[in-house]
Design brief:
By secondary structure, the chain is an all-beta fold. The protein has no helices and 24 strands.
């Protein structure tokens, strides 16, 4: 997550239950530890408060005071299932996915075999709605620049869907396939650019794919890592793409480890929306 007022990039280490922040102005790195896997975080309308999505909880968190006692949601199925990717829609509502919990108590990764995840939303008044069930691994939640389409991915099915999105009602409808079966890895997290193209990290594929609004492959960018996991645009002109990678299944001690990377792009990304508590 790019935080403009902090001039900082935040990212998570799911299996080690860590959240990191790098301040670009000073190159200062800070790390916080949580008691559950840290799977996602978003901006809120309070620039000093972030929304943190954990394996079984969603809470508000202040990086400076480390206050984390405002719990917005508890996942009833935790620890059998856990939360995964999450983003805020243009109206300020959080959308998040769940999946079979593949993080063991010791931090190791277990195989995901069951499609028991869901796509849910959480608004500022605490209302939770379920929009889709039978999800394998929930990844990629993004909206078009015109605020009328929402994208949602299922890694296990190698599929990204698109819905009609109603900003006023904060509802989705008319699900259809946007991309399926692309043979470079599996769809993980994504970011939307200002031209309506979806930048999708391909786990196991060693690349980031820029999909056109009609689902066609516009650009394939090879990365130095085999498992790029998710991405976000940032920087003063929104033309820096930050992306993370997973070290799972790779040789430790080199560039193939899990890490965070950046690259300059030819097009600006869309700023992230803020959750409205």
């Amino acid at each position: 997550m790019w935080h403009p007022p902090h001039d900082a990039i935040y990212w998570t280490d799911v299996n080690r239950r860590l959240l990191h922040r790098l301040l670009l102005s000073s190159n200062h790195l800070q790390t916080w530890e949580f008691d559950e896997p840290v799977v996602a975080l978003t901006l809120t309308t309070n620039p000093e408060e972030l929304l943190v999505v954990l394996g079984g909880h969603i809470l508000l968190w202040n990086p400076e005071s480390d206050r984390r006692d405002t719990i917005l949601y508890k996942l009833p199925q935790w620890p059998a299932t856990r939360c995964n990717d999450a983003r805020v829609d243009p109206a300020g509502t959080l959308w998040f996915g769940t999946m079979q919990n593949n993080v063991a108590a010791d931090g190791s990764t277990r195989e995901t075999t069951e499609c028991i995840g869901q796509l849910l939303s959480l608004d500022g008044s605490g209302v939770v709605k379920t929009w889709q069930s039978g999800v394998g691994i929930a990844n990629t939640i993004a909206w078009s620049p015109t605020d009328d389409l929402m994208y949602f991915g299922d890694t296990l099915r190698n599929e990204i869907s698109v819905y009609d999105y109603d900003k006023l009602a904060q509802q989705i409808s008319r699900r259809r396939v946007f991309s399926e079966g692309f043979d470079r890895g599996l769809p993980d997290g994504s970011a939307m650019d200002s031209e309506g193209f979806l930048w999708n990290c391909r786990y196991g594929g060693g690349c980031i794919v820029r999909f056109a609004p009609d689902g066609a492959v516009d650009l394939v960018i090879d990365t130095a890592v085999p498992n790029p996991t998710t991405c976000t645009f940032g920087g003063s002109d929104w033309k820096t793409l930050y992306f993370t990678s997973a070290g799972e299944g790779t040789q430790l001690g080199g560039v193939e480890d899990g890490g965070i990377f950046s690259m300059r792009t030819h097009v600006a990304g869309l700023p992230s929306a803020s959750f409205r508590p």
